[in-house]
Structure formats: structure tokens, C-alpha cells
Amino acid sequence: MTHNESSAFAEVNQKVAQAGEILGLKAGVVKALSSCEREVVISIPLRRGDDVDVLTGYRVQHSSARGPRKGGIRFHQDVDLDDVRALASLMTWKTALIDVPFGGAKGGVAVDASKLTSIEKEEIIRRWTRSLVHVLGHHRDIPAPDMGTDAKSMAWLMDEFHRLEGFQPACVTGKPVELFGAAGREEATGRGVAMIAAATLKENKVKVEGATVAIQGFGNVGRYAALVCQELGMKVIAISDVSGGIVDKKGIDIKSIFSHKTLEDVQANERIGAAEVLTLECDILIPAALGGVINDSNASNINARFIIEGANQPITIAADRELRTQGVLIVPDILANSGGVMGSYFEWTQNIQEFSWPLEKFRRELDTRMESAFINVHAVSKKHSVDLRTAAFVVAVGRVAEAFELRGSLV
Ligand code: GLU
Fold first, then answer.
1. How far is the CA of 15 from the centre of ligand 1 (A)?
2. Which CATH number is correct for 3-10+38-177, 3.40.50.300, 3.30.300.30, 3.40.1280.10, 3.40.50.10860?
3. How far is CA 86 from the centre of its chain?
């Protein structure tokens, strides 16, 4: 992450403190909500040819006040403890905001996922699971995919967990549909982002049909956000991944490029650098990759009216301030990308009830609950005359603080 001026976790805690002030919370409660309940750091020896590489893995459990901890596992070379703390904390606020019965956690391994073979990835996930099994479980802490991991990784995690603890498919979400996964979960984060984009346009009296969208990221979130934005009538004029960006002012046909692994081999009208997608003129900008990509260096060059945060923490606090003075409306990560964990909640309940939903029901529930979360955050922002991020934190921190105090955690 490029949160140079302060740590990513400190940035989240600034928002927690601000919400605490608006809500009139006790200083001690704010302090408790700014700390992580448990942090486990492990080493993961990995066979590499004749030698062994030793990777560092993490699981940070931020809060269980509202239910079992929940959050993905990220494989990325830049992952460190501060990052994982920030992401675990964001999961607490995300699950509270959308009112699902979970707390927050996050896992990670500092490794470049694009350079791993499938066998190496499997070895790492199995080792991660074995080392952390004592803190995991369907009523303790439930992992899911994040950047660098996918449904296949979750199948290996479930299999390893079953060997150690017995059958419990609800121990992890984001599994393949063929193996206790839920139809709709894979697309859920991107679908939620697109739904929130449409709701933002409507709220601001901008026509959804033909609204222009630029998307940074062509991973799980970016590609489904692009697809559903197009299905809803928006025009995706640019999309990028690490290999660069493609542009078509008439609108890219996302369906035709959807199955490409990267954008490198896609036929394009115009090509630009990966970072340039962020500064294109458009109605909606969706950063859907790493954190900290909109920062001091490019905030003043942003040319979008609305930013929908598909990624976690894509905008630094300083850049957020600057963008708001420019009049850019930002829909924060804990609302905009919460469709993923909402979908995980649907998968978890289906596993526990041993009853599966049809895709249509999954989509309907997701769309309705995303919309009501949006309406609620919007109303709170009006009530307190604050921006949407602050409003989202006010709702989330308020709910977690209430649960924390009701539990009598202090006695
Ligand atoms: N990794 C996703 C997120 O950051 C999903 C987490 C989950 O489903 O538990 O929200």
C-alpha cells in the first residue's frame, strides 16, 4: 500500500475515532475498537527446487463483538502486519454496516501470487490452515478469498480443515459451487459495486443509461463490476490491469473480453498505461485493485464525478480530503464492496442449514440488502451533515460499540 504519510491501520482508526466523537462514545470503547483481539503471525516453509523458501503468513482477528470473525486471505508481495490489521478492522465495519452477524478478520501471505504454481499455492494454503486451525471454525473465524486467492484455494482450505476437524463446509466461504459453494458468490462483490454505482447515479439524478465508467483492476471485483455495469446500461469506457489499460469511448464490450485472463492479449482501440485509467474523464471511477492507489501524487488529476471504492482503502485520507474539496462524491469501500461478504453470509447460512438457494434468490437478496444499506448511509450522511464515508463509519461503529457494551466485555 502507498499510505506513506501514516499506516493503513492508523488511517482506519482515524475514521473510527471520528465516528466515536460524533456518537459520543467513551474513550475506552474507542480504544478497544481500535485494537485487534488477536494477531497470529506464522512462517510457511515452501519447497523451491532443492531448497526451502520461508514465507510469512498472518491471521488478524479484529473483533468478535457481533459474531464470528470474517474476512478473506490475501496473497500479495506487499502484505504486512499493518495492512492485515487495517483490512481486518475494515471487515468489522463492513459486516456491521450491512448488518450481517459477523465480526472482522483478515489473513494474508507475503508472496507474489502470480509467480506461484498451482501446487505451491495449494501447499501454502494447506500450511496456513494447519498453522491456524486452532483459531478458525464456522463459529470462530471464517476465511474467504481476497486478492491472489480464489474458489480453488478455498476448496483446499476446506479440505485441510476437514482432515483436521471433521466435516464443516461453513468453515470457509467463496468455495466452488460444485463443492459447497453458493451460486452467485463469485460475482457478488462486483455485482454489489455495480448496484451501488447505479444507486449513486439515481440519487444524484444522473441517468444510468449511458453513464461513463472507468475501472482500475480486472480481477474478480473489476471484471464482474464491469459486466454488471454494462448490463445495467452504463458505458464502460476504460479498464486496466497490471499489463496496462484499454480505452473505447463508445463503450467496451465486457462480455467479449470477460474470459481473458489478462488484458494484455485483448484487441483494443486505444491502449494507455495502467495508472492513467484513474485520471480519465468519466462519470464513475471504480478503483478495484490494491489500496492507496489514489494518493497525494494523483488526487488533483482525478476527472470523475463519483468514485465507487471496489477495492479496500484505495484512497488515502489526504487524497480523500482533497477530492471532497474538488466536489468528487466518494462511496466508501465498506459500503461499495460489501457485496462480497454479504454473499459469503448467504453461503455460510446455506451451508449451516444444508439448504441451497437458486441463483435468482441470491441475487435478489443481495440487490435488496445493498440498496437498503446505501439508503441508510445516505440518510445518516444527511442527518449529521457528513460525507458518506464518515456516515458509514458512524453506522458501523455505533452498532459494534453497542454490541461490545451489551456483552459486558468490560467486566
Ligand atoms: N475479501 C472480501 C472482502 O474484503 C470478502 C471477505 C469475505 O467474504 O469474508 O470483503
1. 20
2. 3.40.50.10860
3. 12
pLDDT at residue 322 tops 80: yes
291 lines ligand 1 (CB under 6 A): no
**pLDDT confidence of residue 243:** 93
Atom from ligand 1 closest to the CA of residue 174: 8
Residue 167 has pLDDT above 70, yes or no: yes
pLDDT band, residue 92 (cuts 50/70/90):
very high
Tell me if 3-10+38-177 shares its fold with 188-336: yes
Can you tell me which atom of ligand 1 is nearest the CA of 145? 1
> Which has the minimum average pLDDT: 44-53, 116-125, 320-329, 330-339?
44-53
In this predicted structure, what is the pLDDT of residue 4? 46
User: 246 - beta bridge partners?
Assistant: 239, 271
* Fold of the domain built from segment(s) 188-336: Rossmann fold (3.40.50)
Give the three-state DSSP class for 278: helix
Cα–ligand 1 centroid distance for 104 (angstroms): 10
As a whole number of angstroms, the distance between CA 243 and CA 252 comes to: 17
Ligand 1 touching residue 309 (CB < 6 A):
no
- Say if residues 193 and 366 touch (Cβ distance below 8 Å): no
% of the chain residues with pLDDT over 90: 96
DSSP code per residue over 268-319? -SEEE-GGGGGGSEEEEEEE-SSTT-BSTTTGGG-EEEEEE--SSS-B-HHH
pLDDT in tens, 110-125: 999 999 999 999 999 9
For residue 106, indicate whether it is catalytic.
yes
